[in-house]
Each structure stands twice: as structure tokens, then as C-alpha cells.
Amino acid sequence: MSYTERRRSNAWFLLPIFLGVVGGLIAFFVLRHDDPSKARNCLYLGIALMVVGIVMNIILVSTIPGIDPDFGVNI
Predict the structure, then answer these.
(1) Contacts for 28-33 with beta carbons within 8 Å, 24 or more apart?
(2) 55: containing domain
(3) Residue 5 lies in a domain
(4) Would residue 70 count as lying in a domain?
(5) I need a labelling partner for 67 at 20 to 30 A (CA). Which of 2, 35, 50, 60 fits?
(6) 3-state secondary structure 33-52
């Protein structure tokens, strides 16, 4: 079965931006026959945003000071 390559809208990049890897996978499977390069780029964008999110979470957690066992609780 032969697929003709069609140019798809750039709005497909919004899916991985808002849904991350899941959106990248959805965009990849929808676009893979019509516009393979855009499908690959959507998947890469979803993966890249996931990695950026993980790194930002690690940085955020490492900067939070530890909580004392008795942090102002009067019993």
C-alpha cells in the first residue's frame, strides 16, 4: 500500500507540548504516513519536554531544604 506524503498543519506540535510523550506518540501515529518528518519531530519534542520536566523536578527537589522532625508542632 503506497502512501502519498502530504504536508500537515504545524498545529500538531501543540499535542506534544500540552500532553508530553503521550501527545508525541499520538501525533506520531496519526502523522506517520502523511508527513513522516513532522511525525518524528513531534515524537522528539514530546521526549525532549519530558526530559526537561524531569531535570527541572530534580533541580527543584534538590533545592528544597529538609524538614525538621518537629517543625513547629506543639503536642
Answers:
(1) 33/3
(2) 10-61
(3) no
(4) no
(5) 50
(6) CCCHHHHHHHHHHHHHHHHH
